[in-house]
Design goal:
By secondary structure, the protein is mainly α. It is built from eight helices and six strands.
Length: about 240
């Protein structure tokens, strides 16, 4: 939790009946507010939030409420990577929870300050990839890469390098068949962006695809998150049998 949030939430905690002070002038409010309202003493408007972890009620200035909303969004975005590791690739949830605690302690010691959940999640995903590589578990590697790419996309970072790993792995798997020498590109059809639509039905050899890397589409403009700065290419390779 940010230091500023510790400060602004401190006055809110009290024994029943719940009491609170105006975050601007510090006057005690007649009753604990349940929604946004103006202080009868200073006339300034304060905001009420429920903390996403503690479920504690918070009375905040408009400025601090905006900071809190960003912190909450960041928390759930970071948590989404951990949830993805738990729910979508068959990793034991308890194992991940233990890794979260152990990794946070390790990174906190390394950094000299409490490690952010995003750093913890990313470190865990990389450890799991390393373990999957040792086991030769390509499905798990692909699953973790997908979760990493989605996380980068949702946090406004470039996800295309990791998407590239996924597409290249798909091509190598197709290439294992002695009967398949070519692939075609299939897009999201009508919901595809204008750049991806231009790739629909394009046919090439697998070797050509591995060399030129048409996927992910570098100009893709489809976004799955309001924070995304680059596109999320939904195209895929299909086997072409002569």
């Amino acid at each position: 939790m940010f230091e500023w949030l510790k400060k602004v939430t401190a006055p809110v905690v009290s024994k029943e009946p719940l009491k609170a002070n105006c975050p601007y002038c510090s006057i005690e409010l007649n009753k604990f507010p349940t929604r946004k309202q103006k202080c009868k003493s200073c006339g300034k408007e304060f905001i009420v939030r429920t903390h996403y972890l503690t479920k504690q009620k918070l009375v905040l200035t408009e400025k601090d409420a905006a900071k809190y909303d960003v912190e909450k969004e960041n928390y759930y975005t970071d948590k989404s990577l951990i949830d993805g590791l738990k729910n979508y690739i068959g990793v034991d949830a308890k194992q991940v929870d233990k890794l979260v605690n152990a990794t946070r302690d390790e990174l906190t010691k390394k950094f000299g300050f409490t490690a952010a959940l995003g750093d913890v999640a990313w470190s865990i995903s990389n450890m799991m990839i390393a373990e999957a590589i040792k086991k030769g578990d390509k499905d798990m590697i692909k699953g973790i890469h997908f979760q990493q790419a989605m996380y980068l996309h949702n946090t406004g970072r470039d996800c295309k390098k990791i998407q590239q790993l996924i597409f290249d792995d798909d091509l190598r798997e197709i290439k294992k068949s002695e009967f398949i020498k070519k692939v075609s590109i299939s897009t999201a059809k009508e919901s595809a962006c204008e750049h991806c639509k231009k790739l629909e039905g394009k046919i090439m050899t697998i070797d050509e695809a591995l060399k030129t890397k048409p996927l992910p589409c570098g100009e893709c403009s489809y976004k799955m998150s309001k924070r995304a700065k680059t596109g999320w290419c939904r195209c895929m390779y299909l086997s072409e049998i002569d």
